[in-house]
Amino acid sequence: MHVVVNAATSADGKLSSRRREQIAISGEADFERVDRLRAYSDAVVVGVGTVLADDPHLTVKDESLCDERLERGEPKQPARVVVDSKGRTPTDAAVLDDAATTYVCLSEAAPVGSRMDLVDHAELVTAGNDRVDLLRAFAALEEQGLERIMVEGGGELIFSLFEAGLVDELRLFVGPKVIGGRDAPTLADGEGFVEEFPLLHLEDLERLDDGALLRWTVED
Ligand SMILES: NC(=O)C1=CN([C@@H]2O[C@H](COP(=O)(O)OP(=O)(O)OC[C@H]3O[C@@H](n4cnc5c(N)ncnc54)[C@H](O)[C@@H]3O)[C@@H](O)[C@H]2O)C=CC1
Ligand SMILES: Nc1nc(O)c(N)c(N[C@@H]2O[C@H](COP(=O)(O)O)[C@@H](O)[C@H]2O)n1
Predict the structure, then answer these.
(1) How far is the CA of 156 from the centre of ligand 1 (A)?
(2) Cα–Cα distance between 30 and 138 in angstroms, integer?
(3) What is the pLDDT of residues 47-85, one digit of tens each?
(4) Where are the domains of the chain?
(5) Ligand 1 geometric centre to CA of 159 (Å)
(6) Which pathway, metabolic or otherwise, does it act in (predicted)?
(7) What are phi and psi of 61, to 5 degrees?
(8) Which residue from 3, 92, 123, 145 puts its CA 20 to 30 A from 138's CA?
(9) Packed helices 63-71 and 28-39: angle between N→C axes, nearest 10 degrees
(10) 68 exposed, middle or buried (CB, 10 Å; 0-12, 13-18, 19+)?
(11) ipTM over 0.85
């Protein structure tokens, strides 16, 4: 399995504002790059915080990229994955429509009622007691043949993936906006590291729109 975290932050490192509403940080060129990255992924993963805040669809938008997937013998759309300990994904969320297969990764703490609602819309994976055990959940996804994983956020999930040692690559678009706010989400929130910080190796740096695209690999 190869896990790429892709996100866009403001120049001051925020994923969104303190209101946690979706903010277009990427410009046209970066959104096209994100669409291509989705098209070369087996699954696109987000945390339920992102579903509740943004209601993303997580599909490949460019039809020619979908056609190329079909020519390669892949499903028209990559699978979508929501990491959702307590089963809070609304059944009318865009990510649960029939455009692609969706997996919802739950913990044992997800109420039976939520499971019964979600099972009509998604494949359910259970791993972990109170919180999704990401190592086990990603192993279960790999068993389903999902090898090329793209994670889009948000900050809580991205931190946990670094903590679990699951991230192979970080692709970050740093855009020409200052958002500010001590409570605004950043690329990696959670508890934060105080030692044994994950270290990155810069592979590429490119100007894109009025921002910069950085590609790092994670050192072992
Ligand atoms: N600029 C960008 O590229 C992106 C920005 N965003 C922004 O990020 C914000 C949402 O991010 P967050 O609130 O951090 O939510 P998140 O999307 O990271 O989801 C966090 C939730 O996932 C669930 N979860 C289950 N197991 C977990 C585990 N082991 N580790 C961590 N989480 C686990 C928990 O319910 C937790 O509250 C929104 O404001 C959204 O707009 C989201 C994606 C991309
Ligand atoms: N790459 C990127 N740049 C931005 O500026 C963003 N605001 C986001 N947000 C994430 O994009 C996804 C939206 O997906 P759909 O267009 O609905 O398919 C979702 O993950 C947002 O949080 N990303």
Answers:
(1) 5
(2) 27
(3) 999 999 999 999 999 999 999 999 999 999 999 999 999
(4) 2-11+25-218
(5) 9
(6) Cofactor biosynthesis; riboflavin biosynthesis
(7) -85, -35
(8) 92
(9) 20
(10) middle
(11) yes
Q: How far is the CA of 89 from the centre of ligand 2 (A)?
A: 17
For the stretch 16-35, pLDDT in tens is 999 999 999 999 999 999 99
| Phi/psi-derived region of residue 14, left when phi > 0, alpha when psi is between -120 and 50, beta in every other case | beta
149 Ramachandran zone, left/alpha/beta (phi>0; psi -120 to 50): beta
For 2-11+25-218, CATH gives 3.40.430.10
Q: Which atom of ligand 1 lies closest to the CA of 15?
A: 1
- Cα–Cα distance measured from residue 74 to residue 109, given in angstroms and rounded to the nearest whole number: 34
What percent of the chain is predicted at pLDDT more than 90? 99
Distance CA 168, CA 4 (A): 6
Residue ranges with strand state E in 77-168: 79-83, 102-106, 123-126, 148-153
